[in-house]
Amino acid sequence: MTDSYKKFETTIGGRKILVEVGALCGLSHGSCTVTCGETVVMANATMADKPREGQDWFPLGVEFEEKMYSVGKIPGGFRKREGRPTDSAILTSRLIDRPMRPLFPDGFFNDVSVVVTALSVDPELPPEPLGMLAASIAVSISEIPWDGPIGAVAVGRVNKQLIINPTATEQEQSDMHVVVAGTDAAVLMVEAGAHEVSEEDMLAAILFGHAEIKKQVEFIRTIMKKAGKEKREFDAPEIDETVEKRVRAFATSFLEKALTETDLEKRRTAESKVDEMVADQFSDLWEECKKEIGKVMYNIKKEIIRTKIIEKGLRPDGRKQTDIRPIWCATGMLPRVHGSAVFTRGNTQVLDVCTLGMISDAQRLDGLDDEDHKRYMHHYNMPPYATGEARNMRATSRREIGHGALAERAIEPLLPTEEEFPYAIRTVSEVLSSNGSSSMASVCASSMALMNAGVPLRAPVAGIAMGLIKDDKSDKIAVLSDIQGVEDFLGDMDFKVAGTNKGITAIQMDMKIAGIGEAILKTALAQAREGRLHILKAMNAEIDKPAEKLSKYAPKIIIMIINPAKIKDVIGSGGKVINKIIEETGVKIDIEDDGRVFIGGTDQAMIDRAKAIITNIVFEPEVGMEFDGKVMRTIEIGAFVEFSGKEGMIHISKLDKKRVEKVTDVVNVGDAVRVRVIKIDDKGRIDLQRIIPTSE
Questions:
Q1: How many CB atoms lie within 10 A of CB 489?
Q2: For the segment 524-579, what is each residue's pLDDT rounded down to a tens digit?
Q3: In a 3-state reduction of DSSP, which class is residue 206?
Q4: Order of strands across the sheet with 556-561?
Q5: What is the pTM of this model?
Q6: Peptide bond into 149 cis (omega under 30)
Q7: What is the number of other CB atoms lying within 10 angstroms of the CB of residue 579?
Q8: What is the rounded CA–CA span in Å between residue 167 and residue 165?
Q9: End-to-end CA gap in the chain
Q10: Cα dist. 363→84, 287, 409, 419, 453 in Å?
Q11: Which of 273, 479, 498, 654 has the most crowded Cβ, counting Cβ within 10 A?
């Protein structure tokens, strides 16, 4: 062990936590391992010496690495190595990134990389909360400029008792899963899923988590004192005073007038004209000071909009703080899909399409936990045209994956069980136009599309995004309902809340300032509820309950239960039996290990026929039962008869009341006979007796 090795211990949620620094990754700028039980994560933070040429934004890269060896698995696929990050890993990367990002200094443009690796994972002790803690420690003890540390915990509730960092078993029993991150002074990030919990209960969970976070921050500060490096000095680049004065003197009045336009397109046009005027006015400085001029213009715009909201209660589109933009909804526009809906709120519009499939269509998962498939999938797409941009289409972004997961989490608690509704369900939200809160619009559109498809949701779900303008000089605040793009861009908070009339099902909160306290959280949650109920009323006016019938193009699915020991009989050698059933009926058949058989297709008669065939195959006859059968072959001592998918033998002595000299004197191959089961031996062989017709 090296001389720099140090270890530190604390307790989180009643479990011992071991932090080790100095033993591994000697060239990393900040490194640690965090251990809880048999779960071990490693975090490494590094920083470029200087910004890239022309860099004018902060390039923070956060990666959560899922290593399959950590759970004793070999990766699937041909290459047998980890490939593209799973959605779960991407979502965890975002969880780590979001509370850390606001604490880096303004104007800091050096590349910073934070890599968290799951080295050993006990499925009962999820690595995500430990990964967030490890990332905070790694950056805190490095020379990277950062106004941390932060702490992070997951909060669950089992039997009305809140618990910190619940185990996998406890999560299954919990009616909420809330991830909270922040400093010792304020909350920076919340990510939550819940089963319609009240605003009061959600606030209590957040504050419960923050109390634990305060202890973590103090613990990390202890580590920093004993193992931390001196932070690199950083002074944010300042704008030339002469340039700032000249630009402000010329542009402020023009921008003030442009920003009085409440219509989005007219406001954008007016702003573009001001930008052109500024470029012409300062053509002598343009090449040398273009970025500085742009920064001054941004600051002026931000000041004007924020001051109007704080001092006059005037939002860019003319609304009051609690007003919701006009809503328009429609369902069932697409004739061939299983369900569809459009949800429009202001300039934000989402088309959602629902597709139903067999359980085998569920997404197969290859991750570190024990979950192996996902029955409900929500996918979110935002193409460039949604924001009026002309650029190439790209692969699904992390943001799109995150927004899809948020909407999925919001709706999942209201879905019927697999037994109640034996379908895999996919909803796809296509963002057609975006001016703020498109993720929450996708929740609304998805809820309506599911009901249009006939999915028996227990209640409709709506979502709303809340914003915040906080004036540090006056301590005045404005909590804004249903924020639009400019309010998100220039504001201090993006607080998304989804739920039903009864309660909250999902939350995602991100900050651009150093966090918020209980008072703002309470106000935002209460205001979000008012807005959510308003939106639900508009949605219910279009569709307030699931369609009574599925689309004629949706598969019809039935479930039958068979003895698991009979699965091999239904499948047959090399799949011959099941493939023959599928070929004869045109249905699709899925068989689960527990004996559940899903039969799906568009023709009900063929579904019923397939069910009858399988019923015959798995049927277990009992002594005394009578059946109609057919003679399949004869031998010297008896005849073999097929009945209800089974085969038994009638001994020559059981063919007639009188003595039979020759089997073919009574029955021949192809004859229809009525038989009774008289014996079933321990090997399953069936003895039959011929029931003699009264005519004989």
A1: 15
A2: 999 999 999 999 999 999 999 999 999 999 999 999 999 998 899 899 989 999 99
A3: helix
A4: 556-561, 596-601, 588-591
A5: 0.88
A6: yes
A7: 13
A8: 7
A9: 97
A10: 16, 52, 15, 18, 20
A11: 498
